[in-house]
Amino acid sequence: RQRQMCIRDRSPGTVIRVSDGSSLTIVAYIASGGQGEVYRVRRHPGNVDMALKWYTNEDIIGNRSFRQALADNCRHQSPSDTFLWPQAITEHHNGSYGYIMKLRPEGYIDLGKFFCIDENPQAYFRSNMAKLTAAIQICDAFSKLHRSGFSYQDINDGSFLVDPYRGFVLICDNDNIVVDGNNTGIAGKPHYMAPEVADGNTPNTASDRFSLAIILYRLFMVDHPFEGRRTSICGGTCLTPAHELRLFGRDAIFCHDTNDRSNSPVEGLHDNSIHYWPLLTPTLQRAFRTALSRQAICNPIYRIRASSWKDIMLGERAGLVTCQADPADPVHDFLCEGSLPPRCPMCQEKLGPSAWLVFENGQRPYRLTEHKQLFLGDSFTPVGVCCTMPSHGVATLALENASDRPWLLITPRGKTMPVLPASRCQLVDGMTLLMGSYKARIKF
């Protein structure tokens, strides 16, 4: 209590020295968590506003290996801009210390709130494209982290900040990150903790992959993948900590496991898992059944890597279908694999035409439907948007160049013409588009 108040009683205005020789002035209290409190601070010189995480947890404060790992991370470059990476550690002040990082931008919401929408009505993805963007950014960040030789060690619903409109993600609490194989005493959070970690082993990239699969399932399903009939005894309110570690760890059974239906979702308790599962593509269903299978739970070598998850999510983005039955309604979209259904599963209205961009470099084909944005590779910056334009009295698909560079269009007969930024070209079967280093043929 005394340590928690030592800063807050003197804020704003409390000055704290940083190990690199700069200083911080407390501006305002932001929030608190299990390890400590977060403050808005102003860093000098430069008068730059930043965030300070200040430790109040005695186990963290007295953990020398944790502090050393944090100091080491401050000297490393972040493997991805998605991480709110520690930039500098402070000197001890009134018996504790902290570290500074970038402030979270406006509009980002804690991912945990997305799973309690009744209490947080703004915490939901506005589109499936936003949901896929979040999934791709999360997978990309952890893929780069693991390739850099680090493990996160404590992936859970409190690790992420999400923009519900665009799906952009920021990963926080990066003080847990260590060189893979090192142990600083961080174990993880129940319901996300890999069974080998619950058994006392050191967290690593393999346990990260276990937790990542749970996070990705929750992004799409909202429910937890291991919650079902077996965990719903007394409505799930009477599970002891020992039961939780077992039912969500070593003895966990995926609620959609085809080999063991003993933990299937229960209507009235796990309605999201029941409702959203059929809306996934067969590819995504297979991925979750693999990543959350008994084999993957018990043997880490069967867990899906972050890089493989990223490829799966990019494929889902490529096949996504947009629909706008009523111009007065916002555009909605749905996951789709293979041919286009005759009607939208969201609103049951008849769908318009679609086309495919078939790339020459082996990149997966990209489906184009009205209002859908075009992303090339793994970029999050759209270079085009599909629309309609009149042709002989009929609305036909067209593609607007949303980039800052001209494209080259080659007709099926070999005629070439430029497609300037902000201009449109009608899509014709067999035509070719050169978009920077990407060459793709239109196929209806």
Question: Which key features would you list for this structure?
Answer:
444 residues, alpha+beta, 6-stranded antiparallel beta sheet, 12 helices, 23% strand, globular, disordered N terminus
Report on the architecture of this protein:
This protein is α+β, with helices and mostly antiparallel strands and 444 residues long. Helices cover 25% and strands 23% of the residues. The protein has 12 helices and 23 strands. It has helices at residues 2-8, 58-61, 64-75, 111-114, 128-147, 195-198, 205-221, 241-250, 271-276, 282-291, 294-298, 306-319; strands spanning 15-17, 23-32, 36-44, 48-55, 88-89, 98-101, 109-110, 150-151, 160-162, 169-171, 178-179, 321-323, 332-334, 354-359, 366-369, 373-374, 384-391, 394-401, 407-410, 416-419, 424-426, 432-435, 438-443. The protein has a 6-stranded antiparallel sheet. The N and C termini lie far apart (67 Å).
